[in-house]
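Morning run. Coffee first, then this:
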Amino acid sequence: MILGFNADEVFRTAIEIEKNGVIFYKNGRNALAEDDVKEIFSQLEKDEEAHLDKLRKMRAELPSSAKQPTDYDPTDDIKRKTDEETNQYIQDTADMNVFRNVENVEKYTTEIKTVEDALRLAIQFEKDAITFFLIMRDLTEDDKGKQFVGGILSEEKEHLKILSRRLRKEVGCEKMSTFQMPVCANQTAMGPEQARAANLDEPCDDSRGAV
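And here it is:
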């Protein structure tokens, strides 16, 4: 698998994010009393662990050239600037992730007081993960790599659906779009693909009962 730019660094960042996701779901599960949400978090923890294992294996398969600094042609200033901009874009996106570092995981999980708190924070993590993996997929050049990243992306989208359904059950339709977690300042706006991932299979209508 070869990425268009700085593959090893992209994988390192993805692994860091997924590792912190595992910690969050484990800590969040232990902080909750509701059996159904504990079960959801337990399954998502296992899924993130599987993602982590896949990412580590794929990173190990990267060619040695992916781990070396890029040797630019002194006359190709456009290529150098393009790569620098790509690197900055990846870094900025990673930095916006609510679980970019383990300190954030510990901080926010200690602030979980209700099921709604836990679900909203989990939804934010999944949204951020989807954003990062969309970028990762777009940077991937070969079919095997695109299929690999696309598989993780599909599972993260399914996580977002599961969490969104449970949040709707918890708070009702009117409060679904109201995010009050302390991470609001760092939230990433959903793009079209994220919005489709979060979109439920049927219209939101409290009168038909919880899903």
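Residues 43 and 202 are 24 Å apart (CA to CA). Good start to the day.
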